[in-house]
Amino acid sequence: xxxxxxxxxxxxxxxxxxxxxxxxxxxxxxxxxxxxxxxxxxxxxxxxxxxxxxxxxxxxxxxxxxxxxxxxxxxxxxxxxxxxxxxxxxxxxxxxxxxxxxxxxxxxxxxxxxxxxxxxxxxxxxxxxxxxxxxxxxxxxxxxxxxxxxxxxxxxxxxxxxxxxxxxxxxxxxxxxxxxxxxxxxxxxxxxxxxxxxxxxxxxxxxxxxxxxxxxxxxxxxxxxxxxxxxxxxxxxxxxxxxxxxxxxxxxxxxxxxxxxxxxxxxxxxxxxxxxxxxxxxxxxxxxxxxxxxxxxxxxxxxxxxxxxxxxxxxxx
Length: 317
Prior knowledge:
Elements: H1 2-5, E1 12-18, H2 25-34, E2 37-41, H3 47-51, E3 59-63, H4 64-67, H5 76-83, E4 89-92, E5 112-114, H6 123-129, H7 137-154, E6 159-162, E7 166-168, E8 177-184, E9 188-196, H8 198-204, H9 212-234, E10 250-252, E11 257-259, E12 266-274, E13 281-293, H10 305-311
Parallel strand pairs: 1-2, 1-3, 1-7, 3-4, 4-5
Antiparallel strand pairs: 6-12, 7-12, 8-9, 9-13, 10-11, 12-13
């Protein structure tokens, strides 16, 4: 628990920076650091491969020199929009044409447009498109503590590393095995999702490796345990839940895509489990509060998970 207590709860988001003007790199990097963004670079010829991968992204910062505007609908900006329409694109205009308007149908491709000398004007667009939901620090820290405890107990001897929590706007499924469980309380309604690659899960749980159903059960057990501790720590059973209409969940296996019917960014945690005698396992955890989200009503129950665990009122099985 001690390591999780020192988790940096500042939530970040990865953005793909596509810009070939080296003079702008320092300004863009400084802007990203000030606004909790992690900038990733990719060469123009590799952009499509990156977007078809499992890289979790919150948005794309694209320069006009690479956007391919006015190319009859075949430019890079439009191809990005076609393959990942859920990702906001922030367009940096050319310096040499400060007053030139975008062409017909081009402005709809972008979440916001900016110039390098006025890059801070992007901040409101970031808040609206990526950081639109506020997550209390106690919730973020508590999720990491609960998940670490469950993982360490389910996989004795494994070292659990937790990366800094982050937000994603993409809807790409990671790995071949994932679970969903609903979360319902007076302050939230949505889902928790765990995702893993089957090969690394087999390496970490060799006793279940013979049958994929057993691996499914192993991930399902993790999900159930984390959900149980989450409910005990953060959900007040005496408070009524405001029921509302459901939203269909859409899964497209061919494109490794899942949608919960909401445009809000999702809260993500990445856990890496390492053993000296096997492959590391990456476990991705997402929280999707697509049905209801009222962080102003959030509170922790009086007895913490650690207190109940030490007193014997709760135990892992």
